Amino acid sequence: MKTEKTLLTEHGFSLIEVLIAMVILTISIFGLYSLQITNVQRNNKGNAITSASTWGTDQVEYLLALDYEHPDLDDGSHGPFDRDLYDISWEVSTDTPLAGSKSITISVSSNIHGGNHNYLVSCIKGKNI
Q1: CB 120 within 8 A of CB 106
Q2: All structural domains of the chain with their residue ranges
């Protein structure tokens, strides 16, 4: 049987201390939750930029593999063409920057993940290449 003196000397947590610890834990969890949401949004945007870059690079490879006189390499604007969630178009200028070459600027655009995103790729195709 415990005496009154031993009951007063026992130590433990008070209800106030437990409530304060719970509040601190809750605030920490909300901070981590907010951080996770931001990370997911930025990851999605980065994924969209990577996809646009890939579509642009694929289009460069396609155009550079064509014959110099192919209709897709005629002067002027071509497109836009729908590829997945992206629109691809390109502009061709003959004899720019040198005679016997074509300057090609490819534009990849999308309206995904909260805004209009554009990605440009430029290349030069020589007549003898």
Answers
A1: yes
A2: 14-126
CATH architecture of residue range(s) 14-126: 2-Layer Sandwich (3.30)
pLDDT at residue 6 is higher than 60? no
What is the rounded CA–CA span in Å between residue 80 and residue 21?
A: 58
Residue 73: C-alpha distances to residues 27, 40, 61, 90, 122 (Å) = 59, 40, 13, 9, 14
pTM for this predicted structure: 0.70
Which residue from 13, 14, 35, 16 is spatially nearest to 24, judged by alpha carbons? 16
Sign of CA dihedral 50, 55, 60, 65: positive
